[in-house]
Amino acid sequence: MKYLIRSVKYFVRLAIILCLIIFVSVKAGFIEGDLSRMFVNGYDSLWQIALLLAVFSAIYPRLGYSSRNLHLNGSDEELLPVIREVMEDRGYKIGKQEGDTLSFVKRAPLSRAFKLWEDRVTFTRILGGYSIEGITKDITRLCSALENKVSMPDEDA
């Protein structure tokens, strides 16, 4: 279900961006305002464009969102404060915590809106570390930051 929701959100986002580009182009006088003359196939182009947007929207959640295992040595008492610190440094706040699952969302409302409220990063405890789920580029950066933070010795000592 999450996949379908992400696909629909992305389809709407692409459609809005396309409409804005067409609107600005018409207002700037680059193209005519008549849809039958704007596109090569006239009104038939609308369903072709919609189909193309639907294909991109169906593929994007598969590529844009993923899960990754993060291997960290230590107990929850040692690792959770480090995870919270790294997440806060990167603009996240705690969303909810249920059992072995801890999730974070972006603090800034504008950043959340640009990500279509699909900015949740979820940490689930697994043997030997955590499984992290979220936007692929975000979790890649977070995994790197967490691995560096945990592997570096304390600067205070």
Q: In oligomeric terms, what are we looking at?
A: single chain
The average pLDDT score comes to: 86
Q: Note the main sheet.
A: 5 strands, antiparallel
Indicate the low-confidence ranges by residue numbers. Answer: none
Helical residues, percent: 55-70%
Mass-distribution shape:
elongated
User: Strands across the major sheet, in which order?
Assistant: 1-5-4-3-2
Given the helix and strand composition, which structural class is it? alpha+beta
Describe the structure concisely for a colleague.
The protein has a 5-stranded antiparallel beta sheet. It contains 6 helices and 5 strands.
Key features?
157 residues; alpha+beta; 6 helices; 5 strands; 56% helix; elongated
Write up this protein.
It is a single chain. Helix 4 (76-89) crosses helix 6 (136-151). The chain has helices at 2-28, 35-38, 44-64, 76-89, 109-114, 136-151; strands spanning 65-71, 92-98, 101-106, 121-126, 129-135. It has six helices and five strands. The protein has a five-stranded antiparallel sheet. By secondary structure, the chain is α+β, with helices and mostly antiparallel strands. The mean pLDDT is 86. The longest helix has 27 residues, at 2-28. Helices cover 56% and strands 21% of the residues.
Question: Would you spell out the secondary-structure blueprint of this structure?
Answer:
Layout: H1 2-28, H2 35-38, H3 44-64, E1 65-71, H4 76-89, E2 92-98, E3 101-106, H5 109-114, E4 121-126, E5 129-135, H6 136-151
Antiparallel strand pairs: 1-5, 2-3, 3-4, 4-5
